[in-house]
Amino acid sequence: MKEFLWGGATASYQCEGGWNEGGRAESMWDKYLHEENLENGDVASDHYHRFKEDIKMMKEGGHTSYRFSLAWPRIIKNLEGEINQEGIDFYNEMIDTCLENGITPFVTIYHWDLPQYLEELGGWLNRRTCEAYMHYAKVCFDAFGDRVVHWSTFNEPRYCIFSGYLIGNYPPGHRDLQETLTGSYYLMLASAMAVKVFREGGYKGQIGIVHSFAPVYGVDGTVQTRIAMRFADNFLNNWILDTAAMGEIPGDMLGELSKTCDLSMMLPEDLEIIKHNTVDFLGLNYYARAVVKPYETGETTLIVNNSGSKAKGTSQTIIKGWFEQVRPESSRYTEWDTEIFPEGLYEGIRQVWKKYHLPVYITENGIGLYEDVTVDQVDDEERIQFMNMHINAILNAKEEGCDVRGYFAWSPFDLYSWKNGTEKRYGLVAVDYEDNLKRKPKKSYYWFKNVIETKGEAIKRETYGEV
Ligand code: NOJ
Questions:
Q1: Is 0.90 topped by the overall pTM?
Q2: Spacing, Cα 352 to ligand 1 middle (Å)
Q3: Is residue 411 lining ligand 1, measured as CB closer than 6 Å?
């Protein structure tokens, strides 16, 4: 059996801090959050200074891999593409620390922290960003490729592009369908361009992409619902997975979009690059499924709960003419309205494996909770139950022959959760922001260690019956 990786996942902006240290350039998140006067990642979990302690804790917690991202603004100084040696040195140390502790680095090249100098020229709406990304990716392969053999081009293209250009709650804070399409396209093109550089450079290892996976369910079996499910699957999953894994942007989706949008940026030579540079594996971040019904009425509406219990029950997704998302009332939900539905992970893995036949890593899974971290040990039994149910789902899918190769808990320690700030905690280790960022392992940390050391034997097993 191939080695199964167990670990935790983070993102540079969410944990590093040190936003103006080590020659790091400004990112679009720094600019946006400073200007809007919102809780930011200036310090975050201070991983920039404490990564050795954090990685040691991962090792002691039994982890065999660490999924983290590189900060583009730490590595490339400016529009001219100049390299910041201090940034390279920092990540060299981080990678070496992982290896010294027997931890396999699982590296994401881009987890949303675009350099502000590129955002000023239009960010993902400007083809120039694809070229700049390609250069940045090559710098990373050259600098770290002797030790890193697991690469992901992007983390969650859908989430960052839709939030930035359709919902408007992430930088640059726009709400525009054409921009959403253009940004999505350039980002996926950039991903294929990086895969091309990787292959042509003969670097060792594998390169994939990480997707915010939401398997689609229908409210019933009618033809109308099946059509709505196809719209939803294109919107939520296929434009990333089909494009990255099969080199094809879904044709029916483009046909629909061409009724109202301009597709002229999609050049034939780009489509060739996309077609011939598909990924080696798929990273799936799984939090919840999407249950949909046919579109009935109203304008496109996307409301995300970034306020926890204060806004519970207010989330909504309607895509005009395509589908509406429904909230199954009998289901369980987190305070931030995420449905808890582990069977969706089992079913989703089976679908992805059947359709793409590529190795899968569960690159994120976890639960955001309110927690009092002033106690000696946080008793996060809810997180333990959540993780148990999801790892069980993975083991079920694996036993049916799906090639799943790893599980990464989001997150190994508490970190800054974008617009949810730091009150939404995901960590296996508590970070006390009020007390010198002190680290304290939660109950789940010890539970996960036992799961890893028993190679999953400690998971309470459950099957789902006929699906
Ligand atoms: C998705 C993202 O990759 C990450 O940045 C985010 O904080 C977590 N999931 C939790 O929502």
A1: yes
A2: 21
A3: no
